[in-house]
């Protein structure tokens, strides 16, 4: 496979002004007729270079240039393209290709999911549908006609507005027109026997928009939350960004077989059913919240992505980073802002920091790739969103809004770059953001080392800050970046704030900030709200962390202080364990947490976050050589020790919240979600005590709860504790009740696969034999193999290497079916350098075996090559 470089970008030789598609859909094939109106790119010279269209796995049946059928010598077809020589500046091209959607297991292009046809074109799927200039800077108007069997496929959808329809015997057809020019990656069609839920939304200028959700009939009762989320998103984007929707209809379709969460096709979003369907009895709070944010994310793309799109795929974060920032702010406004930030930061630090420190590290705007599908990463999405957040912090809300208005206005209908986005922010602020843009080109997570000094005589407090960014593949040396460091100062005795939050701007490798008029040595509250995606180092003592946890006015930093305290206590005990001693835990952590539990000012959601220990994955991420087995043992011992010390308050809180839950109708709203989270968190501590009344309460919660959040938490507690018999009973009852719902079965698979106590590799193999499992369905693969390799770390890293072998063996199978998924699933093995020498060897051996696959995909090839070096 060849490497594609940003530096090689060239404008397209030809433009496509109009695209007229006609799909004839049959059970064993589809015919795609394309009529394209093309023109030599007027921005370039007036020579007529060959026209090279992208096309993969297409069987060409017919080709005509300006209505003249071409003879065999007049065009060339290879594995990836169709080449011909135009004779005029403006011309039309007609092609007909035959494809086989029913055999498309890659789930890219046109494929079947269950009884329906659907598409996924981003990034380069359109070339699997027809010959085309499949690149985002070629924007065209589209009309689409679909014809199919009337009975089997009563619903025929594509982008835009329906302009015509009709019947012919057993078959029928519909024509759609999208008035907005778009790149091919935003094309979509759907055909199926679908139930439709309809609603409407009146835009800020008073236009009426029809909203439709199409789902399989058995899911008709799971649409309300998605629809509500859509309407909230539409309103929010008007209020916060001044963005109005621009078509008369907005459609969402739910499909079961989908490689990612969802796709923002113009006017016709297609969703993984797990990211849009929910009802309280079947779906957890986490699912409700995920749906709210993904529906918003895809809707927000209508402006940040569709109206203004990317010039090339190196600019992917232009739309993804910005849109993740937008959806995060939306979720923060709809729910608890602090808790949302905590969740996002925990995720970023655990997974994106690991990516940035590993062999697959790349900048927010990568300079090269082999397979673009591999670059839908945490760095592009989550770090990209942090970069936009930093701009927001540096400019302030008002200027940022002016900048986004200018960006949308300047570039509406264009395909642009990250530079254009930053340029709009520069225009409105008058700032030179050249150095800030290093965030787009430098990979790696900067480290901030902060120290301080206080001069009582001068009443002066000084902060010394050094930044440095570790080397990453291809980038041995880094320049200092622009880093907003939000800082407050607390009175070290009373805890009162002596300086409110101030954004210190780092621009140099080393800088000093002076605060004057400070009456006594203060305690700094640094990087408030996680104002930059960096690793912060400041030598807080445990007493200071406990103090910040009790007093900081910044909710995020209270949580952070608790996490840092827990990390210190854990690390000390881990060293003891590694030295063959019995780990002992500093009681300061339990004391600090008991104050948190008793605090009547704190809401339940934040309490739940504060009493949660850092995840095993994060604790490992912090170690130079990750010691999975000992870390797991010590973390569990620490949890038990906290449960013992906090038993009384935990019991009280659990009982009170469970009572309250029983007496309240379930609603997936922030207050209730926070209470359930605390309830379930306390239960998980209490279960460690192995007491009969607690086990009984857990089983009662499992059997009696009227919602999946409480049931699933109870089930997880049974599966994760040494009560195998009760766990198996509960699993069996659960399976019987929910066997018909694939989304609930995903949860059933995943709760087992994630549990180190319950599932070793043998158990994972058994789950894969279950009739509800299918290796062809990405949700099932994620629920079993994904959960095993990412959440069941002790078993995945089992000493005999069996976890690695199992994953690699399945990656090999997946690679023959769905390369996007194989390249994703192999990820946990690619971090082999983080582990102990024996594990490194075992992991490498598996990766090397995979490299020998006779027919390896480009996706997997690239990941293996980068990981093995
Ligand atoms: N833009 C899509 C992702 C497409 C991934 C293609 N491999 C979903 C999203 O980010 O909204
Ligand atoms: Zn997106």
Automatic annotation (TrEMBL):
Superkingdom per UniProt: Bacteria
Pfam families (alphabetical): DUF3458, DUF3458_C, Peptidase_M1, Peptidase_M1_N
The protein's required cofactors: Zn(2+)
The Peptidase M1 alanyl aminopeptidase C-terminal domain, residue ranges: 543-868
Residue span(s) of domain Aminopeptidase N-like N-terminal: 46-186
GO process terms (BP): proteolysis
Peptidase M1 membrane alanine aminopeptidase domain: residues covered: 227-436
Ranges of residues in domain Peptidase M1 alanyl aminopeptidase Ig-like fold: 444-538
Keywords (A to Z) from UniProt: Aminopeptidase, Hydrolase, Metal-binding, Metalloprotease, Protease, Zinc
EC number: 3.4.11.2
Keyword Transferase: no
GO molecular function list: alanyl aminopeptidase activity; metallopeptidase activity; zinc ion binding
Chemical reaction(s) catalysed: Release of an N-terminal amino acid, Xaa-|-Yaa- from a peptide, amide or arylamide. Xaa is preferably Ala, but may be most amino acids including Pro (slow action). When a terminal hydrophobic residue is followed by a prolyl residue, the two may be released as an intact Xaa-Pro dipeptide
Family in the record: Belongs to the peptidase M1 family.
Described purpose of this protein according to its UniProt entry: Aminopeptidase N is involved in the degradation of intracellular peptides generated by protein breakdown during normal growth as well as in response to nutrient starvation.
Protein name: Aminopeptidase N
Organism lineage string: Bacteria, Pseudomonadati, Pseudomonadota, Gammaproteobacteria, Pseudomonadales
